Amino acid sequence: MSEPPATPPRRQVADLWSDGLGRAGTRSVQALAVGALIWAVVWVLLRIPLVVIPVVIAAILACAIAPLVRWLHAHGWPRALAVLSSFVAILAVFGGIITGIVFLVRAQAHELAERFTAGLEQLHSFLNNGPARISDEQIAQARDSIQHFFTSGSVGAEALTGARTAGEIVTSLILMAVILFFFLKDGRQILEFLLWFMPPSHRDRARLAADRSALVLGGYVRGTVMVAAADAVIVGIGLQVLGVPLALPLAVFVFIGGFIPILGATLAGFLAVGIALISNGPVVALVALIVVLAANQIEHHLLQPLLMGRVLSIHGLAILLALASGTVLAGIIGALLAVPVTAVAWTVIKTWTGRGESADGPPLSGSSWDASPAE
Question: In angstroms, rounded to a whole number, what is the distance separating the alpha carbons of residues 301 and 321?
Answer without folding.
Answer: 20
